[in-house]
Amino acid sequence: MAETVSAGASGGVLGGRRSRQEAAWGYLLIAPVMLGFAVFFLIALGASFYLSFNKWDMLTSPVFNGLDNYRDVWRDGEFREALVNTLAITIPHIVLRLICAMGLAMALNSNIRFRSFYRMLFFLPVLTMPVAIGTIWKWLYDPAFGPINSFLRRFGLPEPEWLSNPRTAIAAVVIVLLWSGVGYDMVIYLAGLQTIPREYYEAASLDGAGAWQRFRDVTLPLLTPTIFFLSVIGIIYSLQVFDLVYVMTRIDQTNQLPTVVYYIYEEGFRNFRMGYAISVAWVLLLMILVFTFIQFRLQRRWVNYV
Amino acid sequence: MNRGVGHLLSRLALHAVLLTIGVIFILPFLWSISTSLKPVSDLFQVKPSLIPSEIRWQNYRDVFDTVPFLRFYLNSIIVTFGRTVGQVALASMAAFAFAQLRFPGRDILFFILLAGLMVPDQVLIVPRFVLMREFNWLNTYQGLIVPLIFSSFGVFMLRQFMLGIPRDFHEAAILEGANPIQVYKDIFLPLAKPALAAFGFLALLASWNEFLWALTVTSSTDMRVLPVGLALFQGQYFTNTAVMLAAANMAMFPLMLAFLIFQKQLVEGVALSGLK
Amino acid sequence: MVPKFSTRVNRRSLLGAAGGASALALTGMLPKIGSAQDASAVEPYNGEEVTITYGFWDMAQEAAITAQLEAFKVHFPAITVEPQIVPWGDYWTKLQTSLSGGESFDVFWINSASLPVYASAGALLPIDAVVGDGGVDLANFAVPLVEMYGWEGVQYGIPRDFDTIALFYNKDIFDAAGVAYPDDTWTWETFRTVSEQLTDADAGIWGAGLQTSWQENYYNFIYQNGGQLLSEDLSTSVVDSPEASEAFVYLTGFFADELTPTIAIQQSNPVADTLFPAGNVAMLPGGSFRAGTYGQADANIDVAPLPQGKERATVTHGLANVIWSGGANPGAALELVKWLAGEEAETILGESGATVPAHAGLQQPWLDANPDMNLQVFIDALEYAHKVPDPVVGFEWQIKIQEVVIEGFAGNIPAEEIGAQAAAAANEVL
Predict the structure, then answer these.
(1) Strands (E), chain A
(2) Considering chain A, what percentage of its residues have pLDDT values greater than 90?
(3) How far is B177 from chain A (nearest CA, A)?
(4) C133 and C227 share a domain?
């Protein structure tokens, strides 16, 4: 990754003792988080790594079975289906979300009237319980009684079955995820916009830059660290999407649109194959790691740190 | 003159667009308010009406009669306060170090920290439960709070903002004899205020809604927090959605208040020159 | 950045070694619950002060359970029982985590599909010591309910309540169409014919409401047609039998001819939760646990026995109290389970109206709670009730069947092939 903030340039000036001191301060400042993280997370992660090589039903003792789990993951059609679903949801979700949230944040960062009201409005879905979101959207998508299809019917347009057809279900779910998450990203964009010094805009205006040029030359470049953050986090979270999709697409005990974490949950807790579920989680972890690593590698090409 | 009219029109257009999209954003909220006031017989409607057939405030009282809601509330406040303060303090320190200081292994340590976001909680729950049992922290506030104050998300988010602050600031202060803690406290915390406010609010939101960990480390009713309490209202065969949403609305209220307070922080931009 | 490679690697490998060791230690702390205790080896409760926990999920029964525990305290003043309620949606996650992590409920609810899984893993304490001469007369409980909680000849739990399936119907819709209400003479043909008569697409009324739930839908019809779900030794699914296939074809006909809401509609509107109580569906095969809710609906609802096929049949289920084999106070836990199976505890449960107690002769209070409905049919149904077979693998096989059946009802699989495909899917996991 190594974005190496202005590395090297001033290192020589400071000299060896300075840099040793700086390193000591660095370790000191990260120590609380790193130690807590090690105790409360890494140990469990290590245990789970070991368990991923075991047959384990959570009720009896784990039985070591070498690479069997990973070999099974490789061949597992249900896992592949869940992975395809997850990717099909993640890609449009993240792209649209980054764009829509930025548009909203720009609009609501201007000195427009009622801006507090609007911010609250677009943030409301973030505050709403997944169950409530699921219930209302299921009603909106209802093919027989729902408002969306009655609207389409009035204009003689085709009426999709939305949630019960796997193809339209992905679109339907992406819309809901977008709707419920855009306010969250908006908040982070808004915070990012605040850190852009007003002087930059003033300077650009003096140079005769119009609104579009100011956006292109000042706002967008200075917002790239935020965009980078949101895309990394967005992909990490979206690849683990579970609750909302499950609430939307299940019929009784079956799930029309299983995602990877749903599959992990189902295998581990419902089908008593926790060892296997953990190995699936490790495969997912490795995939997310690769995605994230690539993003960190590529950021040098487009992310502007001052 | 012409320019003024054009400006006015574009503003009106913006309002029109925002309001149109806004309708669908406020709908679930209105729906949950209206449903929370409905009698049970209204819940069976196929095309739910936004207006209850009769207003039933009793649903709100039922919440208190069926579960120790105030106790859940109190627990949630304690737990959220502890986690939010802890997360903001620890994450901002680490973020400053990761963004502004140079030390060997920095990037790899940061990446390991990020891995904390990449594993679904479900597969770590048993080892973490065993850890809590060994610490004797099951059914305690420390069990609810301490394991969740180390936020990889927060370190990453704040680090991104602090990377945007020129290192000159930092170097100048160091040359004047300040140590990194002073730089962090006197220069970076004020500069990162919008980001800290945003993260603080998001941390509060996440803590308030956190479910799986709270479910795992607590089992006695006394120690339950709101999200677990709300889930109790969902039955195996029948859920009284009205009472459940009455509880959910009451649980959501502090978050709305917090948002209103927090978003005021987002009005003023930072003037870099003022700090020089 | 040029990292100081050597020092970093050293530090990391050190950290790694320490972390790995503690991780392994943590794995080692997983309790060994495979070694089950024997009830006869359990020291009888000796009267000392103890606190035990009781895990369950239904908030609607919390008041009844509190009342039960108060009464229990009168008999056993030194035993304090702490009720611990868990949300239904997360009950099994919580139970598995806590059992696996070595600190769980002393006594808890279980359902029949989970019993063999937990019993075979040694997580449950056999309770043979308290049945028969030990105090609990199993003759007070219907045979299928008792069988649900035995595994390999050992009893692990005693049923506390039960449910059966019958035919709920909306009187208003029948009256408006001038059709006679369902009664115990009904057959599959009557059910089909009347469904056709009552279906009125323009008025938005379906004659039948066939749910997606297996328990309230196709299981009953398979048994009525003389079919079975699993072979005698529970090793294979036999829903590909002609009897079961015929039942699937019969039921799919309702979906194909739109006499019942389609799967797509049911996904947004579960029949039992909205369409039926709202008055859009005339008849609904449904469980006794719905009676209380329907008592509160505006619709005018009553209930009749399920129509019969080749024979009369329904499926039944009930929950039981079981004991964790790793608890610190098995003696006190046994006393609680034994007492909860007694007449006093079951009477308190019945009087709450929240569920139907399993103990024979104690159902009257539940009937009285909804006097407008002929709820007696649910109790009578016990006489011809079947228990769903429960193999050690849990209920994954039922979900495999369900996935195929839903596809079939949705019209994506030919009706004649549902049985064969469902059996094949189930056999993969059996």
Answers:
(1) 54-55, 63-64, 250-251, 254-255
(2) 63
(3) 11
(4) no
- Which of B27, B134, B160 is the best residue to mutate to test the A interface, defined by the most A CB atoms within 10 Å of its own CB? B160
- pLDDT at position A9 is 38
Q: Tell whether C169 and C52 lie within a shared domain.
A: no
Helices of type H across chain B: 2-35, 58-66, 69-100, 106-115, 125-135, 141-145, 152-163, 167-175, 180-182, 189-191, 193-209, 212-217, 226-231, 241-264
Residue C25 covered by a domain: no
Confidence of residue B11 (pLDDT cuts 50, 70, 90): confident
Number of structural domains chain C divides into: 2
- Do residues A63 and A56 make contact, with C-beta atoms less than 8 angstroms apart? yes
**Residue C32 domain-assigned?**
no
Q: Are residues C170 and C110 in the same domain?
A: no
Chain A residues whose CB is inside 8 A of the B153 CB are 233
Average pLDDT for residues C418-426, to the nearest whole number? 97
For chain A, list residues with pLDDT below 50: 1-13
Nearest in space to A143 (alpha carbons), one of A132, A128, A158, A155: A158
Domain B67-232, classified CATH 3.30.70.920, yes or no:
no
If asked whether residues C203 and C286 sit together in one domain, one would say yes
How many whole angstroms separate alpha carbon C104 and alpha carbon C97? 8
Q: Beta strands C206-208 and C281-287: pairing type?
A: parallel
Which residues from chain A sit within 8 angstroms of residue C104, using beta carbons?
none
pLDDT digits (tens, 9 = 90+) for A253-267: 888 899 999 999 999
Kindly report the number of other CB atoms within 10 A of residue C38's CB atom. Answer: 12
Looking at chain A from residue 4 to 23, which residues have their Cβ under 8 Å from any Cβ of chain B?
Answer: 5-7, 10-11, 14, 18-19, 22-23
Test the A interface: residue of C15, C27, C117, C156 with most A CBs within 10 Å:
C27
Q: What is the pLDDT of residues C44-57, one digit of tens each?
A: 898 899 999 999 99
**Confidence (pLDDT) at A13:** 47
Neighbours of chain C (3+ CB pairs under 8 A): A, B
Q: Sign of the C-alpha dihedral, residues A6, A8, A9, A12?
A: positive
CA distance B220 to chain A (A): 22
Mean per-residue pLDDT over chain C, rounded: 91
Listing DSSP states for C101-143 in one string gives TT---SEEEE-TTTHHHHHHTT-B---GGGBGGGSB-GGGS-H
Tell me what pLDDT residue C199 has. 97
Q: Which residues pair with C81 in a beta bridge?
A: C52
Q: For a pLDDT cut of 90, what percent of chain C falls above it?
A: 82
What are the two backbone dihedrals, phi and then psi, of residue B180, each rounded to the nearest 5 degrees?
Answer: -55, -30
Nearest residue of chain B to residue A239 (CA atoms): B118
Q: How confident is the model at residue C67 (pLDDT cuts 50, 70, 90)?
A: very high
The pLDDT score that the predictor gives to residue C32 is 53
Q: How many residues does chain A have?
A: 306
pLDDT digits (tens, 9 = 90+) for C257-297: 999 999 989 988 889 998 999 999 999 999 999 998 998 88
Give A300's contacts in chain C (Cβ within 8 Å): none
- State whether C183 and C153 are in the same domain: no
Q: In this complex, do B102 and A292 lie within 8 Å of one another by their Cβ atoms?
A: no
User: Which residue in B94, B152, B260 is closest to A120 by CB distance?
Assistant: B260
Does one domain contain both C158 and C169? no
C271 CA: distance to closest CA in chain B (Å): 10
Query: Are A34 and B107 within 8 A, CB to CB?
Result: no
Annotated domain spans of chain B: 67-232
If you classify domain A68-302 with CATH, what class do you get? mainly alpha
CATH code: domain of residue C188: 3.40.190.10
ipTM of the complex: 0.91
Q: Is the pLDDT of residue C180 over 90?
A: yes
Please, what sign has the CA dihedral across residues B54, B55, B58, B62?
A: positive
